[in-house]
Amino acid sequence: MKTKNRPRPFFRMEGGHSLCGTVKVQGSKNAALPVLAATLLMEDTCRILNCPNISDIECMKILLQEVGCLVKSCGHTCEVNATTVSETWFPKREMKKMRSSIILLGAMLARKKEAQVYYPGGCLLGERPIDLHLAALEKLGAKIVQEKDMLCASCKELKGCEIKFPFPSVGATQNVLLAAVTAVGETTIVHAAKEPEICVLCEFLKKAGADIEGYGTDVISIRGVKTLHGTSFQIPSDRIVAGTYLFGALGTGGHIVLENAPIEHMEKTLETIRQMGGTITCDEAKKTIELLSDRRPCNLERLETASYPGFPTDLQSSLLTTACVSEGKLVLKDTIFGQRFRIVEELERMGARISLQDGGCTIEGVKELAGRNVIARELRGGAALVEAGLIAEGITTVFDIGFVERGYEDIVRDYRSLGAKIEKGC
Ligand code: UD1
């Protein structure tokens, strides 16, 4: 295959300027994906509002269409009618594009009593097994046979039971929820994930007629119901996108306002930004977060990512980037994805002082970074490289931006509305 003349889209920016302005936060990717997967359970139309226009959502729509769902999109609204589901096989190409495709396994098993999926792809954050998903679905009554990287699952019926996870997993909790809402009897999930995206999925399912209690705590109880009905549902704003822009403004020294901000889901992020020297003002009624960063941020001595309500692993790269130009030292550990440090090499080339350790790194803040050509290797790390480019003196070009576009609707538009000198090219 010829690759020589293939366009290689990039983001190019002139850094070293403060971010100032207002930006509206897009709908949440990680909330919208499982809600869209859940529409498979209903022989009816569901109307999902505030879906972000990003490639991961496009991928989920294709997966739903491939099995026979009617999918209509207009702006940020997506209508899915799953009455016409005829297939139970999901195509490999789309399955491999994102990790969350695996939750279609639980949904399809519930709907058709069989499903054929592939080992999912997604961001390379080190090893990302799906053993918890498979063991839980087997406990609910599924027989799962693996043929190379294809998984063929079937069941006579799914039967409620106790699923005790050894530790919380967002995706595995979602898979069990999708399989159990229409199963026979009661399912209890012990050590369930407590992330806001779990609560969003449960609220959507409840609106469609499911009987679920305890979400937001580590024990969720689901009493199976016979059928679910179509409904409309609003996806909340993206707490990770909001956090990305806040760390960008903290790092560049700026004054920004986020509109449509998911304040209630950002407590630890906002606390961390305050501790680093940012002045945060939240207006719950207007749903705005204002950040004023009028001096060089200071590094906290230690920080560990953790499950919700701890500091989110998805903002670790953004925090790490701001820490590179903050005063003092930070020992940063990622307890969820210990190998999520692929941007370190690129940041070092921009002048950052970082030493990697097992599952983490130590950052010694420097006064400034220098613009370079860098390569995105995963979604959140890619967004953090854009942030680094806005902080750095001179010109930075970020390549392989398809990773960033998996989760950010239009990062150029958003940063421009904050006054950044940034463009997309190819
Ligand atoms: C979801 C999010 C991702 C976020 C992560 C943690 C989506 C689409 N993705 O990913 O953005 O970074 O939660 O908040 O919502 N694990 C196993 N076996 C399993 C499943 C998970 O060992 O079967 C491990 C993982 O390797 C990881 C930890 O459990 O170390 C937590 O992962 P999990 O919560 O499952 O993350 P995802 O659902 O993949």
Detailed description of the structure:
The strands form six sheets. Strands 21-22-1-23 form a four-stranded mixed sheet. It has a four-stranded mixed sheet with strand order 2-14-16-15, with helices on one face. The chain is globular and about 65 Å long. A hairpin with a 2-residue loop joins β7 (143-147) and β8. It has 426 residues and is of the alpha+beta class. The protein is built from 14 helices and 23 strands. 30% of the residues lie in helices and 26% in strands. It binds uridine-diphosphate-N-acetylglucosamine (UD1). The site of uridine-diphosphate-N-acetylglucosamine has 21 residues, from α1, α5 and α6.
How many extended strands?
Answer: 23
Low-confidence stretches: none
Ligands: uridine-diphosphate-N-acetylglucosamine
**Pairing-aware structural class of the strands and helices?**
alpha+beta
Q: From the alpha-carbon coordinates, what is the Rg to the nearest angstrom?
A: 22 Å
Whole-number count of domains: 2
Number of helices: 14
Helical coverage, percent range = 25-40%
C-alpha geometry? globular
Main pleated-sheet profile: 4 strands, mixed
Give the distance, in angstroms, between the N- and C-terminal Cα atoms: 19 Å
- What average pLDDT do the residues reach? 95
The name of the CATH topology of the largest domain is UDP-n-acetylglucosamine1-carboxyvinyl-transferase, Chain
Spell out the CATH superfamily of the largest domain: Enolpyruvate transferase domain
Could you give the order of strands across the largest sheet? 21-22-1-23
CATH class of the largest domain: Alpha Beta
Instruction: Give the strand content.
Output: 25-35%
CATH architecture of the largest domain: Alpha-beta prism
